[in-house]
Amino acid sequence: MPDVRFHSVFDIIGPVMVGPSSSHTAGAARIGKVVHDIFGDTPEKITVYLYESFAKTYRGHGTDVAIIGGLLGMAPDDPRLPDSLKIAYDRGITVGFVPKSDKVDHPNTARIVLKKGDRKLEVTGVSIGGGNIQITEINGFKITLSMGTPTYITIHEDVPGMVARVTRIFSENNINIGTMTVTRSAKGEKAIMVLEVDDYQPGILDQLKQLPHMINATYFE
Amino acid sequence: MFYTIKELVEQSADYPSVAAMMVHMEVENTTRSADQIRHLMGKNLDVMVRSVKEGIAGVKSVTGLTGMEAKRMDQYLTAGDFLSGQPILEAVRNAIAVNEVNAKMGLICATPTAGSAGVLAGVLLAVRERLAMTRDQQIDFLFTAGAFGLVIANNAGIAGAEGGCQEEVGSASAMAAAALVCAKGGTVVQAANAVAMTLQNMLGLICDPVAGLVEVPCVKRNALGASQAMISADMALAGLKSVIPVDETIEAMRRVGMQMPSAFKETAEGGLATTPTALKLKQQIFGDR
């Protein structure tokens, strides 16, 4: 069996998107959107580090425009996408792009750093073709987050009992957790949990969000 | 699920068609019903049709580098004095149309990518009336293409940055050839042969976008993909067979992609992208920014 990166027929036929490049525009917008959803807030400052093909051709493909559109919550078929830089400027968000010459694992890689007050989120995403993406790192921790698997991501205060409270919700709803990653930037700082589960159930996200010390919870599939 | 074309061919024997098998697998792997899945594919079809029409009416790209040539091709077709056949030229015109819309940041459906989006839509719209295809049959066409495309994507790739244009327009053309064979009433084995012959003709195709833009040579590469798909489908339907098996061909494409220098993988550092004219165009479009 090969390394199965594409699971759905809609990974091949789709997405419907604003051009010109599925990997450099739609994939970039999707990476931005995932980071936006994880952060759960409008950042004050966005810094985007671009690697290899992303670094060399981002202007021509609108990769910069697409990532910022995603970070503002736009989907790849959002007609406002071409105007995202102006929209970010109008909202007073500081935006910076840094093309890097470092070698990385995948040619289409972006590292996005968001800041608001004392909150900081750093996510690395790769665009693997046809608009499909993977998230490979959150706040310096290696993870594998492939779109297509039901996944919950929580950002919460780093206090005792959070893992138990979160997993109890899944257990009470009879949902099996396939994989789980718990990370934090430093002791007592904000912590992140990534949970891949076997089934989606509406309502779980609200329960997660209502937990004490929870800052944000998101669901992807 | 099928992970090779051989498995796809074998498993499809248990279903009325490759498309029916693909829908079934999609139901198994998601929380969606068959009706919802077909409905979603129908929406993709609608976007494809709109993008072809928009392009033929005439569009110009954001940079001005490409555009208005699908319209020109349409006028040439209407005049009726041409060398190759009507269906191929219609597929070529349609493919150019979609990629001109893509280059102006218009709405398209990636199949499998945006840079190669013209191929599948292009051939489908060139044959759907000739083959008297119903809407359901057109949706099936897309599921068939997607099934073959999934195998190619998982065993090689579909990103120009990973494996060059062979994996983008090459994959698109191979998927389209397979779907054409099935739509015309050919066998799944014939469709597999069409995939093999297409990829073999596309092997080694580099990704060298001028100024890093998905315009030159991408727009006209889609014309190549569409016409090759039609030719491969006809060859397969005539009973021509590929000497090298299709799964070995896909593996060869993966290896070629790996061995291809990064200058030819969507970095705009080689091929057409570094010709004097391309460098001048890049300077004109982006200046010293």
TrEMBL record, chain A:
GO molecular-function terms, A-Z: 4 iron, 4 sulfur cluster binding; L-serine ammonia-lyase activity; metal ion binding
Pathway assigned to this chain's UniProt record: Carbohydrate biosynthesis; gluconeogenesis
Reaction it catalyzes: L-serine = pyruvate + NH4(+)
Highest rank taxon of the organism: Bacteria
GO terms classed as biological process: gluconeogenesis
Keyword Zinc-finger: no
Cofactor: [4Fe-4S] cluster
InterPro entries for this protein: ACT-like_dom_sf, ACT_dom, AHAS_small-like_ACT, ASB_dom_sf, Fe-S_L-Ser, Fe-S_L-Ser_bsu, Ser_deHydtase_bsu
Domain ACT: 151-221
Alphabetized UniProt keyword annotations: 4Fe-4S, Gluconeogenesis, Iron, Iron-sulfur, Lyase, Metal-binding
Protein family according to the UniProt entry: Belongs to the iron-sulfur dependent L-serine dehydratase family.
Protein name: L-serine deaminase
Organism for this UniProt entry: Schleiferilactobacillus harbinensis DSM 16991
Automatic annotation (TrEMBL), chain B:
InterPro entries linked: Fe-S_L-Ser, Ser_deHydtase-like_asu, Ser_deHydtase_asu
Organism name: Schleiferilactobacillus harbinensis DSM 16991
Homology family: Belongs to the iron-sulfur dependent L-serine dehydratase family.
Biological processes, Gene Ontology terms: gluconeogenesis
Any Pfam family: SDH_alpha
UniProt protein name: L-serine dehydratase
Top-level taxon of the source organism: Bacteria
Residues covered by the Serine dehydratase-like alpha subunit domain: 17-273
Pathway where it operates: Carbohydrate biosynthesis; gluconeogenesis
Cofactor: [4Fe-4S] cluster
Keywords: 4Fe-4S, Gluconeogenesis, Iron, Iron-sulfur, Lyase, Metal-binding
Catalysis: reaction(s): L-serine = pyruvate + NH4(+)
EC number(s) per entry: 4.3.1.17
GO MF entry, a single one: 4 iron, 4 sulfur cluster binding
